[in-house]
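Module 6 notes. Inverse folding takes a fixed backbone as the condition and produces residue identities as the prediction. Think of it as a translation problem where the source language is geometry and the target language is the twenty amino acids. Below is one complete input and output pair. Work through it position by position during the lab.
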């Protein structure tokens, strides 16, 4: 999400995207944005001269790997455990049925209540790690 915004705004700002513009547009907390930018800078995906964010010349594979790593690093402890469970349930085909997933969240290792299960799944969807899909035999979640 952060990388996409930097790419989008980079054409408008030759010296780099001003930090404040990025922060306002993303609606992330100051700490979240700084942490994400630090990770991206450490991976040499972006540079931050004079509090402006610029994309570095990196190949597309590194950018994609960094995006996935940043997504995973944004997870809190509960989301991390849930994502691990989802990954195991999905197996090789990458799909897990909605009912199976909800059952594992409610009655499995995490023993979440209904509201926490719903919020956790929505959070993972919003972070782009899972996606709800409709297959011929029902609703599923796929790994992204």
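Target side of the pair, the amino acids:
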């Amino acid at each position: 999400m952060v990388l996409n915004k930097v790419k989008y705004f980079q054409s408008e700002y030759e010296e780099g995207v001003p930090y404040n513009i990025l922060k306002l547009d993303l609606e992330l907390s100051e700490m979240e944005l700084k942490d994400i930018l630090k990770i991206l800078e450490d991976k040499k995906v972006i540079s931050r001269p004079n509090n402006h964010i610029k994309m570095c010349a990196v190949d597309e594979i590194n950018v994609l790997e960094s995006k996935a790593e940043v997504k995973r690093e944004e997870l809190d402890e509960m989301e991390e455990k849930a994502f691990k469970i989802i990954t195991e349930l999905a197996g090789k085909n990458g799909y897990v049925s909605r009912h199976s997933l909800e059952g594992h969240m409610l009655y499995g290792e995490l023993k979440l209540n209904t509201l926490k299960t719903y919020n956790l799944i929505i959070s993972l969807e919003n972070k782009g790690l899972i996606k709800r899909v409709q297959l011929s035999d029902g609703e599923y979640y796929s790994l992204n």
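Reference fact for the lab report: The first strand starts at residue 17 and ends at 18.
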